[in-house]
Structure formats: structure tokens, C-alpha cells
Amino acid sequence: MTPRISKAVIPAAGLGTRFLPATKAMPKEMLPVVDKPAIQYVVEEAVGAGLTDVLMITGRNKNALENHFDRVGELEATLEAKGDTEKLAKVEYSTGLADMHYVRQGDPLGLGHAVLRAHMHVGRQAFAVLLGDDIIDPRDPLLERMIDVHESHNTSVIALLEVDPAQAHLYGVATIEPTDDPDVVKVVDLVEKPAPGTAPSNYAVIGRYVLRPEIFDILEHTAPGKGGEIQLTDALLELAQQPENGGVYGVVFRGRRYDTGDRLDYIKAIVQLAVDRDDLGPELRPWLKEFAARLD
Fold this sequence. Notes:
single chain
């Protein structure tokens, strides 16, 4: 039986230039989505799937990420003295969420390079990669399903989403073959951000991966690709052509996903998550309806 994986890798070294000037002094991963930083949703997802050993790949000016998951003694003491147990519990929750580790990427050489920086920590075992721009609704578990497919097929697994063909050029795109499971496909080809109108399908790769350790061997010799960066997509294509190493399978996700990597989609994500909250939704939903009516 394939051993249950326990380690998650979260690349978080990007500069967040699409959100300037907000990200001039604050990591984009710390931008709030309702009342939690985006990165906490991702760590919570990993923990919910049983991955409590989390390695974050960071860069310069990312100290706020480490601080968020660390103790803040003065704040905790102040809240305790005030008797504000609700806020104190929220602060302490992020501190004890997972066994957090950090390593810097150094040179910004692409996602593939960031994943390779996890080699020493992960070792020769399978692991998950979660990108912070994609928040997966906990009511629609994706990572758990990917881990199940990895265990049953002893393969690397990527998350796929059917997108509007006109938007396919914004993603890595997979060519697939069906399997006996309606949500599981075999990946036979991958291309990173194809030119508009040339995508081989509308199955886009989104930011969740469960990878066998052979990916490190491939990344060691993967040449820079699209954008002059070491692309994880290129390494996955090589792995897909290695049946002796399990190939690559995909889980087609049809649940709720919130994109926080684009300014407009970030705003939509906040609204979508807030309307479903018991503490915010009852007041927010009627206000949204009134506001939308006024737009006409």
C-alpha cells in the first residue's frame, strides 16, 4: 500500500505585483479574504486533508507569513486581560494549526524551482503542493480526493478545472484520456499557457498537486521554459511520459474555487465567501440585492 502522505509544500515567494501598492510592504498571501489572510485558508485546507507538516517557500519581505503562524505574546496577553476569549481563540488557532517550516527560494526562477527547493525537507516521499492563489471551498474537498487517487494508483495527481476555452491560454492545459472513474483522467500531454486559440483542451491545471518524489529528479534537469522560468508543467509532462514512475493522473474538480490572484476575482472571492457566512450573510445578502438593483 502507498504510504499516506503527510507533507505539504506551499510556494509563497511571488512579489504580488498585480496588487501594488498594497503589496509593496505586505506579502500578497497576507491580503485578507473576509477576516483571514489568504494563506491561512490554504494551510487550513492542507491540515484538513491530514497534512500537518507544512513547508512554505518564501522570499524577501515575507517575514509576516512566519509571524502570522507564530506566537504573539503581547497581543495574547492583552486579549486575555480584556477577557476577549473569542478573539484570543482565533489568534491562538493559527499558531497551533500545523508544524510550520520555512525556506527561501532565493532566485525567482519559477514554480518548478520553488518546488525543487523543498527536496531536502520532503526527502524521498510523496507530498502535496498547494498554491496560494486558489482557495478551495472546504465544503467541496479536493485535496482529500487527490490523495485517495494517488494512493490507489501510486501516481502523481494534478487538479483540473474545465474553463471557458477563451480563457485556456491563461493556464497550463492538459490533454487527457478518460478512466473508469468519472472525475479521474489520465494526463497524456501538458502545455503551459498556450497561445490563444491553440489550447488542446479546456482542462486547465489549477493550484493543487500530489507528487511522487521522482518529480525532484526531473526538476533537477528541467530547462527554463515559458517566461524563462523553470516550469512545473514541463516537469509534469516528462513525468506523464514515464509509466514506470506512475505517470500523471488528474482529478476534475467541479466544486467551488475562489481565485485570489487577480484583483477582480479577489473581490468576487471575498463576496462569495462572505455571503455564505452565518455571521455576515444574513445582512450582506439583502444589501447586495439592493446595491445590484441600484446599478441599473
